[in-house]
């Protein structure tokens, strides 16, 4: 059984520390993949002053735990960590961390991308950009919905 | 009649000017019945939920489809497509 | 142009520090993917006491730099780091680190897997396992050659 | 005649009992000509390089194919399929 850790909150995370906690000294995880999503400096106007991340408390944790469990059922994972921040974030700040550990590198890669693709379409977070004057909600992207689709069986509706 | 707690998030909360409300629905109502009732209010509700715009519904914090039933005492959230990560 | 960093040597690496050096405060890299390969505790006998990593000095650095440059030509990357250790390594020790940064997450994921697939088939490193009594050279795996093949154009020989 | 520096790595170095050697080859020799010459030695060289076993050759630290030429003064390395990462 994969060890699954989910955390949602305003606090920043430390990749090195989360990685160390994930694998510790155990020698089963021959492959660890980490994804870090960060605030980019482009979108509204030329300059995003602040990105506000809203979420649906309670449901976010539940949705992330389900996505991680689905990944662990699909690939032979030893451990999964998902950390997602909420609240105001500035360019270059970290938003999301996904860590997947496995004996096999392709399992760790694929499970990690699977978790991010589902997180982007199923976990209730919303971004609002503001440049100090104007604020606007970020639109969902078709490319994210398509990325999620690729994990469905071919005969899915 | 069943009592249902409605929650709105993100852009929908802004355009409805409403964080949450409590409604009573006939027993056996599905998600589609609730949406039809909100659309009947007209205004922003009709614009957002009655046309081509895409939205999502969660019942008791699980993503739901139009024909999913709404249990008594349910927490039903309506929100735009998600944009986290 | 992607910033490319290659390092081969006996010293261990710190994921957190390499990540911080890769992206610093810049807001172009919305997505960072890290792969860490570690020594597993299985193979020869039940217990690998030590894994000795030999390499071809000079050619290793050149091969890794070429693989990283190929990845940067194929995906819109902002930065790449590859660190590979040599010498004696024990179970749970780190062997290899690949970091890829991009504005787009699928570019960061795919470039990272591409680099690992080519590293596994083109970079001159060899593993020898020893349990204290017996030592044996690890055989190359067909699955690694197949993983590399998937990046070739469909009409390649 | 060209002088060529030969290097052996990993299992091949062990079975040949040789880290490196210097050879002279006729000008215009290709990788395949060098291999044929080594196979003609018999013993471990014939076993490893003359049969079904897989090996790799690098010329001046670039992976090479059988018909690649070997320039004068080249560093030619012969080694098993790699197993790093």
Automatic annotation (TrEMBL), chains A, C:
Q: Which InterPro entries match?
A: MoaE_sf (IPR036563), Mopterin_biosynth_MoaE (IPR003448)
Q: Which Gene3D superfamilies match?
A: Molybdopterin biosynthesis MoaE subunit
Listed under subunit, the entry gives: Heterotetramer of 2 MoaD subunits and 2 MoaE subunits. Also stable as homodimer. The enzyme changes between these two forms during catalysis.
The superkingdom listed in its UniProt entry is Bacteria
Species of provenance = Jeongeupia chitinilytica
* Entry EC number(s): 2.8.1.12
Asked if the record carries the keyword Protein transport, the reply is no
Q: What is this protein called?
A: Molybdopterin synthase catalytic subunit
Give me the reactions it catalyses: 2 [molybdopterin-synthase sulfur-carrier protein]-C-terminal-Gly-aminoethanethioate + cyclic pyranopterin phosphate + H2O = molybdopterin + 2 [molybdopterin-synthase sulfur-carrier protein]-C-terminal Gly-Gly + 2 H(+)
Can the keyword Metal-binding be found in this entry's annotation? no
Q: Which family does it belong to?
A: Belongs to the MoaE family.
Q: Which residues form a coiled coil?
A: none
Automatic annotation (TrEMBL), chains B, D:
Keyword Nucleotide-binding present in the record's keywords: the answer is yes
Asked whether the keyword Oxidoreductase is assigned, the reply is no
Membrane spanning stretches: none
Q: Which UniProt keywords apply?
A: Nucleotide-binding
Name the family the entry cites: Belongs to the MoaD family.
Q: Which NCBIfam families match?
A: moaD (TIGR01682)
The entry's protein name is Molybdopterin synthase sulfur carrier subunit
Traced from the root, the source organism's taxonomic lineage reads: Bacteria, Pseudomonadati, Pseudomonadota, Betaproteobacteria, Neisseriales
